[in-house]
């Protein structure tokens, strides 16, 4: 059974979403502590010297879930579109777990992420492993932020969405590297933004801060011999 912690969306709303998305698996654990919604973060947080639990091996330790979501078109002004964040054992690029995010794209808009406060003064790079696709139909975007913590919480426009999850030569884990330019206490936020009118699931893993060029992974297509009678297989390549 896949183990994950769910971001609660409010009773019947979450149950309805999961019933219509059988590919997500069964929910079997609790809401992560410190989850935020479209309101600002009100609890003071002390930045740590290094990023904690970057591969989600300790469930939600160190992380807070955040969301910026439009209204559900079926109940405008009542609730946002459905979303979900969980620690998953289905895929992993490092260790045995990764972060899984689901967003209902009914409004072709919405961002869900996890964040934690960190002293960024010792780091030059943030690296995140995302699952990428060969499809050219962009549904989800990688959404990443490093910098000072906004008083009213992060907004969608503040995320770096320059790295595409679609249109790659092979499907699998790929490292995206971002420059860290904030030289003081701040936050690291990693997640997804949806840009298509459908529900979609994305995975990310191995979030790390470095002061040197980080090690990266990328999917490569390895052709098999004709005599094997099988198609090409996808492997993961590590580079520096």
UniProtKB/TrEMBL annotation:
Residue numbers spanned by region Disordered: 22-91, 212-240
Q: What are the Polar residues biased-composition ranges?
A: 28-58
Q: What segments bear the compositional bias annotation Low complexity? A: 213-233
Instruction: Read off the PROSITE patterns from this record.
Output: PROKAR_LIPOPROTEIN
Q: Any idea what this protein is called?
A: CBM11 domain-containing protein
């Amino acid at each position: 059974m896949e183990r994950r912690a769910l971001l609660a969306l409010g009773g019947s709303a979450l149950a309805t979403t999961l019933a219509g998305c059988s590919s997500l698996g069964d929910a079997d654990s609790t809401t992560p502590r410190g989850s935020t919604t479209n309101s600002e973060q009100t609890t003071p947080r002390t930045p740590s010297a290094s990023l904690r639990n970057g591969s989600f091996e300790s469930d939600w330790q160190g992380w807070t879930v955040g969301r910026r979501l439009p209204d559900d078109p079926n109940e405008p002004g009542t609730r946002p579109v459905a979303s979900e964040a969980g620690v998953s054992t289905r895929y992993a690029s490092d260790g045995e777990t990764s972060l899984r995010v689901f967003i209902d794209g009914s409004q072709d808009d919405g961002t869900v992420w996890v964040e934690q406060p960190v002293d960024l003064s010792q780091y030059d790079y943030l690296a995140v492993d995302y699952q990428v696709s060969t499809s050219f139909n962009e549904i989800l975007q990688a959404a990443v932020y490093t910098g000072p913590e906004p008083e009213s919480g992060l907004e969608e426009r503040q995320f770096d969405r320059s790295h595409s999850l679609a249109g790659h030569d092979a499907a699998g884990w790929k490292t995206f590297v971002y420059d860290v330019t904030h030289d003081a206490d701040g936050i690291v936020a990693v997640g997804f933004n949806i840009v298509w009118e459908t529900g979609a699931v994305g995975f990310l893993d191995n979030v790390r801060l470095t002061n040197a060029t980080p090690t990266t992974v990328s999917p490569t297509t390895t052709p098999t011999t004709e005599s094997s009678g099988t198609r090409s297989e996808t492997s993961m390549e590590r580079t520096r």
